[in-house]
């Protein structure tokens, strides 16, 4: 449906677009004015045409003063402290923690057996069965 809008990540350098992650897969935007924004609380959000939140990373932390969004070379979209660097960064939120139907190199399926959340992948037979 061309009226639905999604925020996603896909492989760029192959002829057939392969979607690797979608933020709002359960709640597509319905207006051409939907937008992605990093709010003042440090959460990445997708707003609909009337500025209502249709998706949120829920990555708010009070201790971080300056937050940025970065798409890493691995394909991992992260929300992080703007002043952090190096390989062992403490991300406030990362798309690799919320896999869709594509497992990328460097992804880890991790969960807390006591409190959750439980992580899983869903495999589709073809693009029409999703």
UniProtKB/TrEMBL annotation:
<dbReference type="InterPro" id="IPR036426">
    <property type="entry name" value="Bulb-type_lectin_dom_sf"/>
</dbReference>
<protein>
    <submittedName>
        <fullName>Serine/threonine protein kinase</fullName>
    </submittedName>
</protein>
<dbReference type="InterPro" id="IPR001480">
    <property type="entry name" value="Bulb-type_lectin_dom"/>
</dbReference>
<feature type="domain" description="Bulb-type lectin">
    <location>
        <begin position="1"/>
        <end position="92"/>
    </location>
</feature>
<keyword id="KW-0418">Kinase</keyword>
<dbReference type="GO" id="GO:0004674">
    <property type="term" value="F:protein serine/threonine kinase activity"/>
</dbReference>
<keyword id="KW-0808">Transferase</keyword>
<keyword id="KW-0325">Glycoprotein</keyword>
<keyword id="KW-0732">Signal</keyword>
<keyword id="KW-0723">Serine/threonine-protein kinase</keyword>
<dbReference type="Pfam" id="PF01453">
    <property type="entry name" value="B_lectin"/>
</dbReference>
<keyword id="KW-1015">Disulfide bond</keyword>
């Amino acid at each position: 449906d061309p009226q639905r809008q999604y925020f996603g990540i896909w492989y760029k350098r192959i002829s057939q677009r392969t979607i690797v992650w979608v933020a709002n897969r359960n709640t597509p935007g319905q207006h051409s004015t939907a937008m992605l924004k990093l709010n003042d609380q440090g959460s990445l959000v997708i707003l609909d045409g009337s500025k209502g939140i249709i998706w949120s990373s829920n990555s708010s932390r009070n201790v971080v003063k300056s937050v940025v969004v970065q798409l890493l070379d691995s394909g991992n979209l992260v929300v992080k402290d703007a002043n952090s660097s190096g390989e062992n960064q403490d991300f406030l939120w990362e798309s690799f923690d919320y896999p869709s139907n594509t497992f990328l190199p460097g992804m880890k399926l991790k969960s807390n057996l006591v409190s959750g959340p439980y992580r899983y992948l869903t495999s589709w037979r073809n693009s029409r069965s999703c």
